[in-house]
Predict the structure.
Amino acid sequence: MGKHYDQSIIPTELKRDYDVYDRLTTLGIELGSFETDVNSLAGQAIAQMVLHETGLIFMSGSTGGTYPMNDDEDRIKHGFEGAQQVADQQIRRLHWALSCGGEGDLNDVLYTVKALGMVVTPGGGASSAAPSVTNGFSFRWQSVFGGGMSEFAIDGTDTGGWSGVHARSAMGGFDGRFSIEPEIIVAIPPSLAQEIIKNRGWVFPLPPPMLAKISSSQGAA
């Protein structure tokens, strides 16, 4: 596990007993590269995520799927899969936000706090679509970080832990040319958050001077 995670206040009984990256490999989640995934904040209206010194990470939403949702099973399946793809994208971003300066990685995620799934159901219909579609995002998160709906769970129990389980809201009634936009908040050890902020700031992508600093250190490595 990560050094920050090992020294955290999480009870021993609730700590993950596996390497998160082994699960990513099994699930086929690709992490990209420093060159493609560590970018500049210059010219961008919003950040992909903001780190707080207490250890909370607020991640912006991303869209998934290409169709609006209704009660049709095939549509819900499409939205579920789109939400799962967004989770993969968010996990990839989180990996680089934690690791690009060499401070930590996904093994340092303590637990997941809150998710919000905003599902496109024009006219406010599809009463069952919002939670069912958002499950694609939540269940994928649990498969990576642990939880009862994980692909690795047996009889509702993931022996690897529970740090992917989160509080959640799922809302429909939005218009758009996509299926869902989920966002999520995760917790990392305060020691890691403070190390990252001291080294390269509190936002990801990186402000230009911080990107230059981190890129230079990558070249030196």
